[in-house]
Design brief:
Elements (H helix, E strand, L loop, with lengths): L4 E6 L6 H12 L2 E4 L18 H4 L4 E2 L12 H17 L3 E6 L2 H9 L9 H26 L11 H14 L3 H6 L11 E5 L3 H17 L2 H10 L7 H4 L3 H8 L5 H26 L5 E2 L2 H7 L6
Parallel strand pairs: 1-4, 1-5, 2-3, 2-4, 5-6
Length: 303
Amino acid sequence: MSEARIIFIAGPTAVGKSGAALALGERLGGEIVNADALQVYGDLRVVSARPAGSDEARIPHHLYGVIDGAERCSAGRWARMAAPMIEEICARGRAAIIVGGTGLYFRALEDGLSPIPEISPDIRELAKNRREALGPDGFRDEVIARDAAMTRLPAGDAQRLIRAWEVFEATGQKLSDFQAQPRTPMIASPAQRLIIEPSRATLYGQCDARAAAMMSDGAIEEVDRLRERGLDAGLPVMKALGVPEISAFLTGALDQAACLAALQQSTRRFAKRQLTWFRNQAADWPRAADAAGAVNFFFDDNA
């Protein structure tokens, strides 16, 4: 059975989203588009729990491992890659199954993007240096002097404050002014949406198992190779779940047992943050308790 449709499968880490997407794609004759902020990087197959090569070979998978770790992938950059790809899949009469745990990626497709010009890496580096020179509080004061709407951000929210500073520096316009402009959805057809959300106890057990599997499946070697590249510590790949914990093991700061315990705790905390985001920002999406329920949902007349 093959039918042009757009399907979103979201949820926290370790709940089986990739397996659900694969099973659904095989039943529907569909293609999978990655919506995970870390699985876009080629350096992080194991650490990001990217689908195995054998699974990727079973049906077309898109936007996995397509960006080098030395680069940054924002929601905007991802959406500008994903939207035409989804359109092409549907034009072939196939189901486009967008799967991942990055809620902002789904939002970018459905709500559109603020028309902010691309910011050069040089200005981004200037913003980071400025924050270091002024300190968190002084940098926040400077940002607010440029864009009073940023008073809602605490001094510790470096990412958003740096974004506001660099946009003003590059364009002479406030970030809040760009954000207030109307947006156009990036996909023409409404998506069928679902979140996989198991019980908290089940989720945490899955997180612990995911962390243990990661450690035994080559994550240590993968992080070692990543560290050998000497990349900027502020890049997303260097802050990815698993990289700081395993780096601490590689430098001798943690033994392997302590590394695993730290990774399991970080994975549970990350899943909890994802759950909170989806509950607040996607409260109207239907839920399934597990991957099997997610697949069955899309064959229900109400899906």
